[in-house]
Amino acid sequence: MDLLALTATQDGRNLGPEEVLVTQGTGGGDLYILEYGALTVTRDGIEIATLSEPGTLVGEMSVLLGTHYSATVRAARDSRVRVIREAKRYLANDPELTLAIAALVAGRLDATSALMVEMSREHAGKPSEQGLLRRIFSALLLPAEEREPG
Description:
Number of helices: 5
Helix content: 25-40%
Strand content: 15-25%
Number of strands: 8
Radius of gyration: 17 Å
Strand order of the largest sheet: 1-8-3-6
Order of helices and strands: HEEEEEEHEEHHH
Largest sheet: 4 strands, antiparallel
Oligomer: single chain
């Protein structure tokens, strides 16, 4: 399911280079879908991703978990996003978009789990790496309210 097609009627927001879309630890509740450009994602001062694929979703964790934004997202260059304000309420009335987001989140978890299995195989017999990988696996399986912060 194409998030851009499913959100074609939503308002857009233009961002200039280095303009902040969301700030870690603030707000939450709105969803953004990248139309074009590139966004950098920084968590606790560490850059963890650059998003440039049209249709990429931003803000889903805060919406689905009911928390503040877990990362700062800023434009790497001129960019445009679609905006879904008060997304939880909006999603309650749009099952097709909700299912598309659920499939996207499940796909990310599946890809993360597969990567963790691959890394476990690569680092078999190395106790320090295995301990770290077990911690990450455990964190993936715990409910959000039981995870350690940060």
